[in-house]
Amino acid sequence: MEIVTLPKQRIVMVLEFDGGLFHGWQRQENAYSVQQAIEEALFKIEGELSSPNLATAGRTDAGVHATHMLIHADVDAERWFRSPHAYLQGMNFHLSQGVMVHGVQAVSSDFQARYDCFERRYQYHIINKTFKPVIRANHAWWVAKPLDVEVMNLAAKTLLGEHDFSSFRASGCQSKSSSRNLKKLQVSRKGDDVIIDVAADAFLYHMVRNLAGSLVAVGKGRWQPEYLHELLLKKDRNLAAETAPAHGLYFTDALYHGLSAQSVSGKTG
Description:
alpha+beta; Alpha-Beta Plaits; 2 domains; elongated
């Protein structure tokens, strides 16, 4: 029997998801992932023979959230062009709890969500107050001791630019190079909320969470601000602070030439 291959259209989708309900982005054998949720929704729209060829700007770990995660997928061209808006509605109808598609857009067949991305952005959320939060307990890191945001920013400035970030790299990191270009590392406070904004060309495994952990150590007064630059030069992960918990981390944007995750959000074709 001859197998008919239907014409495909590459599209991008912008996702929001609660990382606490998934075991990271990547599909796994014995745990539910965001990738599995997306593929299952696509199969319900396109049929079991669908081959979506998914790729993402950031392969998040278990517990990590996203407000604007961009992925690409190859979908049935006829179904897509019939109504991109209906395609978006269909995805959200079939998706499981905890994940939603905010926008969709057609792109060229050679667009790559992972490899074409030149800047990835994250936020790390901290609740800085004496009493442990209840409602947001799984969506921010609770730090009881008062944090000095001013000295945290002094420390953050010493890490900007292109460096070897081995001191902030987890032992399981498979990247061949530990050099990254850290474009933004800024700490702000609004009431009890302390937010760390981070942007780079790419990140090492657990790099953002390790940066957050060390900045909090500075904010508590454990280290002087200049220590983080010394730590950077020593290239020794054992000298850095604890890794901040996953549930405080949010993937917030992915930048490409001509589009970004946030610019696609709200679009229906």
